[in-house]
Amino acid sequence: MTTLKLFILAFIFVATSGALFSKFFKEHKFLTFLVSVIAIIGSFYLIRDIYLDMKNDVIAELKSESTQNQPIRNESIGNELIQNKPIPVERETFPAGKVFRDSLQIGGYAPEMVVIPAGNFQMGDIQGDSGRDNEKPVHWVNIEKFAMGKYEVTFAEYDKFANATGREKPDDENWGRGNRPVINVSWHDAVAYTEWLTQQTGEDYRLPSESEWEYAARAGTKKSRYWGNNPNDACRYANVHDNTSKKENGLSLEHHKCTDGYAKTAPIGKFRANDFGLYDIIGNVWEWVADNLHSNYTNAPNDGRIWAEGADKNSRVLRGGSWYSNPYYSRAAFRNRSDPDIRDVNVGFRLVRVARTN
Fold first, then answer.
1. Taking Cα atoms as reference points, which of 351, 343, 88, 66 lies closest to residue 200?
2. pLDDT reading at 86 higher than 90
3. Residues facing residue 115 across a β-bridge
């Protein structure tokens, strides 16, 4: 556009200064005077517009350079690589639904997090389909805003921690590392990773409380699973014990009558997220939470905090089911348990980061 304006300005200059224009001036003085006035006014506006265009171009170039200097990440989701994507971190704001990553002191970034909105929900066997005392009594819980891992912690993310701290890397059972969820990690391993992230980022990372986990897993729903009550719809949403697992693993337990395509762990993000934007919150791997085991919800806190008092100190809670979990285990309310020192092929974890208040 600027080039066109320069061309028009040059044409006016040539046209009003040539011999033809001088001859025309002698024969038609008044008409020539009007043409000259119009040419002068037109030239003024053209020069002004050209100046503004050049000014805006310079400003746009400066903004472009500023954007190019932002931190850049290469993000791997599934088998796709998303390159040159600025990190969307606003450290002083924490709106619900925001996705962000914190920077690490050693370089790179912490796992991707999603801000979960504050709210309240009924925790436990609200569908009445378990018959398990440890999912009762159903009770209301108020939850403050917090951030949760968009995905389960991957081998790539945990291996970075292991390399930085000299910690032994967990066995992947030859299923693959990279963007598959880390397995064979104990509760203590998971806590150590959260403490390292806290030190690296200056933010408060930890395992979720049991009530935070269930609130996030339900994502505002009251069904047995965030997609509904029918377990055979699972394969669009979760990697569970299905037709594939039954065929390849030879497990005799009840299976989901659908096909998810994975007999062991699946890479993160292969299935549909829940309404809070969390992937694999049911299935893939069991997830450690911070709470000690309680036999039921009698006197359970109603504010979302970690429940440690009056508990079995030798057991920790696992949530969410895994790649070989049957329909009964693959429910938002189901509570599993394990020794905090145990490492298993179907156990991993997911992070929480406490919301800033400033």
1. 351
2. no
3. 147
Q: What is the pLDDT of residue 18?
A: 54
Fold of 94-354: paralog of FGE (formylglycine-generating enzyme) (3.90.1580)
- CA-wise closest residue to 109 among 72, 82, 80: 72
Residues for the chain: how many in total?
358
Report which DSSP code applies to 354: E
The tokens for 29 are 């003085």
What pLDDT was estimated at residue 124? 96
Q: Is the pLDDT of residue 180 over 50?
A: yes
Phi, psi (degrees; rounded to nearest 5) at 79:
-105, 10
pLDDT in tens, 269-301: 999 999 999 999 999 999 999 999 999 999 999
Instruction: Give which of 156, 160, 194 is closest to 172, Cα–Cα.
Output: 156
Reading the block at residue 249, the tokens are: 């693993």
Mind spelling out the 3-state secondary structure of 33-48? HHHHHHHHHHHHHHHH
Q: pTM value?
A: 0.75
Q: At residue 113, what is the residue type? A: M
- Which SS3 state, helix, strand or coil, does residue 87 take? coil
All residues at 6 or more sequence positions from 115 whose CB lies less than 8 Å from its CB, including other chains:
94, 95, 96, 97, 98, 99, 100, 145, 146, 147, 355
Give the C-alpha separation, 270 to 79, whole Å.
Answer: 9
